[in-house]
Specification:
Chain lengths: 112, 406
């Protein structure tokens, strides 16, 4: 089992969600986050003063997937979230030691 | 006025106008300010307007109304009769064609919004207790005398100063008081203006525009041609100022902003306030277009240069657009709109001189008296919260409340 964390553009969430649905991996958790990478900040102007906003809003997707689904899911996210411009985000993959389904107390792959 | 009979049309309009002006303070102004502040100070900012309204409501009917509108005492103040509104309701007295009680209630809403306006300059660092003490002191020693001078038969009205709905009494008065207090309070640690929820501010701006029809057209005190005239120029000035503020931003940054447009609306409404009921449509366009340049320059160039921390630009918008409006009234007042007033362009340059005097007198009195009140509060209970409270945010630190939870 692997945990996949993807930081994507907020306006790409629906596209990514639909694409994951299409490949049969619908389960995910979404968090609104802020962050920065190489993408430069944006400028906001209030009453004539300019402010550099250097933490940008992003969406963080979190999924737990079976080992043999990892490539498929990662490709799908990368493809559907891409615009080709700086700021498209990143995907992180880490091993998962265990999963528990709270309702039934099932453990392991069954609980995923 | 002795022989006048009650006119139910006028009375109905004044009851509605009273409710409209009330809506300007709570929640109009409260929301306008609250949207502009950090999320940690939202409730405190709303609270300042609501508490101003409540305290003014009580003071006005105990002794405020007669000190403004009672029999004139040497041009300075009204004679305090009818304390606790005693016998006003019972005697069913009339003020023109409307009940005196309606007029008094209408005027209360002006006193309340004037003191609430000041709060915008002070947010993020003012002790709540200091504000609760400031409201009655400032109303008593600044608002009541100035309102008497201009509207209650005091010395400025005897000289012929024109102020249809409160350019000097409300806007210059509150704007200058805000400046004086800010000089005592000093700046915030974090002076950035990053609105936490501009939607509130825009709702507030809309409510203010709407309520201002009661403020300006209601100041006719009758439901007729004069009220309609004031109504139209109020709308024209607000729209003109909104568009000119947008133009300034477009010329400077290539983009218009919604906050800029809302700021322009308020500046335009402030500027037309003394002139509504005296000027025609072309004059209202000039007043509105020019006022955005005045307030924009104050906020973008003068404030940063002089370094005072007028947090939400009360002096920049209400003080300076109020001054421009008061002067413009002396320039553009048309005897064809209102036989009571003739301005410079209709051949009466003396009116402009009187307006300058009224502006100067209000500015000087409000500034000095507010400084004294501020000093007294600072020396007794203190004006400013602790550094820790300021950093934590006032909602949590001094009210044990939070506007937003995770």
């Amino acid at each position: 089992m692997k945990k996949i964390v993807a930081i994507i553009r907020p306006n790409k969430l629906n596209v990514v969600k639909d694409a994951l649905d299409d490949i049969g991996c619908p389960g995910l958790t979404v968090t609104e986050v802020k962050g920065r990478g190489r993408q430069k900040g944006i400028t906001e102007i209030y009453r004539g003063r300019e402010y550099q906003i250097d933490l940008l809003p992003k969406i963080e997707l979190m999924m737990i997937v079976a080992d043999n689904d990892v490539e498929k899911v990662v490709d799908t996210i990368a493809h559907s979230a891409r615009t080709g411009k700086i700021g498209d985000g990143k995907i992180f993959i880490t091993p998962v030691e265990g999963v528990v389904r709270i309702r039934t107390s099932e453990r392991g792959d069954d609980a995923r | 006025m002795v022989d006048a009979a009650l006119n139910s049309g006028d009375t109905a309009w004044m009851l509605i106008s009273t409710a409209l002006v009330m809506l300007m303070t709570v929640p109009g102004l409260a929301l306008f300010y609250a949207g502009l502040v950090k999320r940690e100070n939202v409730l405190n900012t709303l609270f300042l307007s609501f508490s101003a309204y409540a305290v003014a409501s009580i003071i006005w009917f105990i002794y405020g109304y007669p000190l403004v509108f009672g029999a004139d005492f040497h041009g300075v103040i009204g004679v305090p009769s009818d304390v606790f509104f005693y016998n006003v309701l019972e005697s069913q007295a009339l003020y023109g064609s409307i009940p005196t009680s309606v007029f008094a209630m209408y005027q209360l809403t002006f006193a309340a919004i004037t003191v609430a306006l000041i709060s915008g300059a002070l947010i993020g660092r003012l002790k709540f207790g200091a504000w609760m003490l400031f409201i009655p002191l400032w109303l008593t020693f600044v608002y009541l005398p100035v309102a008497h001078w201009v509207w209650g038969g005091g010395w400025l009205s005897q000289l012929g100063a024109l102020d249809f709905a409160g350019g000097t009494v409300v806007h210059i008065n509150s704007g200058v008081a805000a400046l004086a207090l800010v000089l005592l309070l000093k700046g915030r640690r974090d002076r950035s203006l990053l609105p936490h929820q501009l939607g509130y501010t825009i709702i507030g701006a809309g409510l203010l525009w709407f309520g201002w029809f009661g403020f300006n057209a209601g100041s006719a005190l009758t439901a007729g041609q004069l009220a309609t005239s004031a109504f139209i120029v109020t709308n024209i000035s607000a729209a003109s100022a909104m568009l000119s503020w947008m133009l300034i931003e477009y010329l400077r940054f290539g983009k218009a902003t919604m906050l800029g447009a809302a700021s322009g609306i308020i500046a335009g409404l402030v500027a037309i306030t003394p002139a509504a009921g005296f000027v025609n449509v072309p004059s209202a366009i000039i007043i509105g277009v020019f006022t955005s340049f005045v307030s924009y320059a104050a906020i973008s160039y003068i404030k940063p240069r002089l370094g005072y921390d007028d947090a939400l630009d009360v002096f920049g918008i209400h003080g300076l657009s109020g001054i421009w409006g008061a002067l413009a009234t002396g320039i553009f007042a048309s005897p064809f709109i209102n036989a009571a007033a003739t301005g410079l362009v209709y051949g009466n340059p003396a009116q402009l001189g009187i307006q300058v005097l009224a502006v100067g007198a209000t500015f000087a009195y409000s500034f000095i008296a507010t400084l004294i009140i501020g000093k007294v509060i600072d020396a007794t209970i203190g004006l400013r919260v602790t550094a820790d409270d300021e950093i934590q945010g006032l909602d949590q630190a001094i009210h044990d409340e939070a506007a937003y939870h995770v």
